[in-house]
Specification:
Elements: E1 3-8, H1 12-22, E2 28-34, H2 37-47, E3 51-54, H3 63-73, E4 78-83, H4 88-96, E5 101-104, H5 109-120, E6 125-126, H6 149-159, H7 164-171, H8 175-189, H9 194-204
Parallel strand pairs: 1-2, 1-3, 3-4, 4-5, 5-6
Helix pairs in contact: 2-3, 6-8, 6-9, 7-8, 8-9
Length: 211
């Protein structure tokens, strides 16, 4: 039986390249593509793939938070991060979110194929360059750990320079609900403005990884 794979990356050319390469494998089938984390969540719930190959830096909902929700809500679906980032904290956060694999984009596609097969078999896979993060102390508490999934998504949309009205429209809630959520986020992070929210997240490399 083929392994059903969903690709999540905000670059169409990357998705197309991965799709053409992975479909050459007789034991793999691409069942869907997503351009951001929110779309990935919707497609995962609809298509129930075996594996989600997930970029980390994506608009609307980043790969770390999307992975957390997928692993929490759909236990049969596995996530493999495919990222350009080998930073220890970013790798650690993705693994803490529940990812079963982490592959660097600068490695050959053969490694991703190998990772998909290993994760499908029930094991985990890390690119060699990232394995050193497993030796680092774990359990460091971050301010952004206190945010809910919804609050993290709103914080990221603020980073994407979206207004409260735009956020409300995309999340199908009222502007008042967005404003209330922003107040809670500021209180939890100990800041007084939307800029302060982004500064904390950037410092912790927790929500946004283009630093």
């Amino acid at each position: 039986m083929s392994t059903r794979v969903l690709l999540a990356d905000d670059h169409a050319m990357v998705r197309q390249g991965l799709c053409s390469l992975l479909e050459k494998e007789q034991d793999m089938e691409i069942v869907g593509e997503a351009e951001d984390g929110q779309k990935a969540l919707e497609l995962v719930r609809e298509l129930l793939p075996d594996i989600v190959v997930m970029d980390i830096q994506m608009p609307n909902l980043n790969g770390i938070d999307a992975a957390r929700q997928i692993v929490r809500d759909l236990r049969g679906v596995k996530v493999i991060a495919l990222s350009m980032y080998s930073d220890g904290l970013i790798v650690e956060n993705m693994l803490k979110a529940g990812a079963s694999g982490y592959v660097l984009k600068d490695y050959a596609v053969e490694e991703l194929v190998r990772a998909i097969r290993i994760v499908k078999a029930g094991d985990s896979y890390l690119s060699p360059k990232t394995t050193s993060v497993l030796l680092r102390p774990r359990g460091r508490k971050l301010l952004t750990d206190s945010l809910t999934d919804n609050e993290r998504q709103i914080a990221q949309m603020l980073w994407n320079e979206k207004s409260a009205k735009q956020i409300a429209a995309e999340l199908h809630v009222s502007v008042n609900a967005v404003d209330a959520a922003k107040r809670k986020i500021r209180d939890k992070l100990g800041v007084v403005s939307d800029v302060g929210i982004v500064k904390v997240a950037l410092k912790e490399k927790r929500l946004f990884v283009d630093v």
